[in-house]
C-alpha cells in the first residue's frame, strides 16, 4: 500500500513538473513570436533586460 502511494505521488509530481516546463516554453515562444512578428523586432530581443525595464517604466509612469 505504501509503495503504491509513493509511486502515485511520484507520477503526480512528475506530471506537474512537466506541465510547468511546457508552460514556460510556451510562454517564451509566445513572447518571441509576438515581439518578433507582431512587434516587428528581433525575437531574441524580448529577453533583454533593457526592453523589460522600458516596459516597466511605461507601466509605472
How is this fold's topology laid out?
Blueprint: H1 2-38, H2 49-60
Overall outline: elongated
* Topology as a string of helices (H) and strands (E): HH
Uncertain regions spanning at least 5 consecutive residues: none
- What is the strand tally? 0
Structural domains: how many: 1
Major sheet size, sense and barrel closure: none
Short synopsis of the structure:
The protein is an all-alpha fold. The protein has helices spanning 2-38, 49-60.
Description:
With 61 residues, the chain is an all-alpha fold. It has one domain (2-60). It has two helices and no strands. The longest helix has 37 residues, at 2-38. The chain is elongated. 0% of the residues are buried.
What descriptive keywords fit this protein?
single chain; transmembrane helix; elongated; transmembrane; 61 residues; 2 helices; mainly alpha
